[in-house]
Amino acid sequence: MKKHRFVLNPLGYPTPHDTWGSHRDNGKPSMQYQQDLSAQHGFTLTELVTVIVILGVLSVAALPLWFNRTDFEQRGYFDELLQATRYAQKLAVASNCNVQITINAASFALAFQSAPFGHCNNANIELPGKPGPYTAPAGVVISGGTNITFSPSGRANTDATISVDTHSLRVYAATGYVERQ
Q1: What is the Cα–Cα distance from 62 to 66, expressed in whole angstroms?
Q2: Run of H or E residues at 101
Q3: Banded model confidence at residue 20, pLDDT cuts 50, 70, 90
Q4: Pick from 66, 94, 110: which residue ends a domain?
Q5: What is the pTM of this model?
Q6: Which among 25, 46, 66 is the end of a domain?
Q7: Tell me, what's the pLDDT at 42?
Q8: What is the pLDDT of residues 78-109, one digit of tens each?
Q9: Does residue 133 have a cis bond before it (omega within 30 degrees)?
Q10: Which of 44, 76, 94, 179 is least buried, going by the fewest C-beta atoms within 10 A?
Q11: Whether residue 158 is found in the same domain as residue 75
Q12: What range defines the domain where residue 85 resides?
């Protein structure tokens, strides 16, 4: 009488092996089952080298098209200018002094303006964690440069729209709100 046991084949499905445990094999799995287990699955060296070469060619040819450094610098400088403008407005409220941000085609700067009561002095302001000067990287152009003064109430002295290439921000005089557009 043959013993039938179900074992998993290399694909993971149960298959009957009638010789497993028979007296002919002394209780060992059959030769066919041992050969199935020893079959190797994987990639050849040629396939692996081909994939590595293709990835190398793509990284040299295609990646520079996806990652343009100028676009990255434009967006980074725009974000820096936007945050500096918001910082100037908040600093004016917190310090109870007028704060001016001067924006021109190549840079921006922040400064306190002297107050009529004399408790504010004319001094340059540095952004937290980043000392000046705040100049635009090569290839980045600012348009709509102006001087914006924020009063202690947070209001701006003028409405302004400033563009850094394709990105722009707007300052509303009535409220001092700085909006990304």
Answers
A1: 7
A2: strand 98-103
A3: very low
A4: 66
A5: 0.63
A6: 66
A7: 81
A8: 999 999 999 999 999 998 889 999 999 888 99
A9: yes
A10: 44
A11: yes
A12: 69-180
